Amino acid sequence: MSLKFDVIGKKKGPLTLEYDWHKLALYALSVGSGVNDELEYVYEKNMKIIPTYWAAILGFEEFTDAYEYGQSLPDTLHYGFDIEYHKPITKIEGKIEYTIELLDIYDRGEDRGSLAEIQAEAYDESGDKVFTLVTRDVDMSSGGFGGEKPPKAPVEYPDCLPDYEIEDYIGPNQAALYRIDNDPNILHIDPDFAKLGGFDKPIIMGMCTVGYACRALIHTICHNHPESIKSIKVRFTNTLELDNPIKTQIWKIDDKSGVFRLLNAKTGDIVLNFCKIELF
């Protein structure tokens, strides 16, 4: 396949996403929430929303499928995303309308692939803009075409111990739960398919680990107010097999911002890196 540069700048949509408390509760369960200490995320009474739900649900299905820019799907990896919330979403049932636009395709080099940036702009039923999501995908088979290099937006970590270190565990069934309403890619459940991809066994979805990190942020610098999150930036830097302990490290920069990363607690590999959060 060859990259399709003619679709850069062309918007598609509006597309519609319908959601309710069932979907929100399933997402919360799939990223580690439970009834013992996070009942408000899995029970419709006084329900709170884990805000990375919107980045997760729009990262797949219509959002990805509707924007065919010539990528080779077997060679394409989710590189990272930025999401900015323009107002908190607190309703637990409703519709989100959104447009999508391929912003650009960058050249990372012959051995490092191409990087596509796709933007979604989402609106609630009142017509208010609620969030902007920019997702980035790397096609490892299509670099070296002579295009511009991707812009750099480094995230620096303080030279000190993190202010918070939250331990958690991604169990053997987590991908099976997460894929029901989020990412059905069989790489995350089929052992034979995982081996074809070069993995010893199925791996957890990168966006699922983002949900774990977001829960850690909510319980620390957000003081259990998920609606206080204004923006989140994440890079995916390592895969993670199921049935593994994880650790989210968080540095508070000031009252409105922080940086974080998520590690495989067994190996020390950094799974989510160059991550930043801003609060309203």
H/I helix tally: 7
Query: Which descriptor suits the 3D outline?
Result: globular
What percentage of amino acids are in beta strands? Answer: 35-45%
Q: Widest sheet: strand order? A: 1-3-4-5-2-7-10-9-8-6
Number of strands: 10
Written overview of the protein:
By secondary structure, the chain is an alpha+beta fold. The protein has seven helices and ten strands. The protein has a ten-stranded antiparallel sheet. The longest helix has 14 residues. The mean pLDDT is about 90.
Quick recap of the structure?
The chain is an alpha+beta fold and 280 residues long. The chain has seven helices and ten strands.
Topology (elements, then pairings):
Elements (H helix, E strand, L loop, with lengths): L10 E9 L1 H10 L8 H4 L9 H7 L3 H4 L10 E10 L8 E14 L6 E10 L5 E11 L24 E7 L3 H5 L12 H6 L9 H14 L9 E8 L7 E11 L2 E8 L5 E10 L1
Antiparallel strand pairs: 1-3, 2-5, 2-7, 3-4, 4-5, 6-8, 7-10, 8-9, 9-10
Helix pairs in contact: 3-7
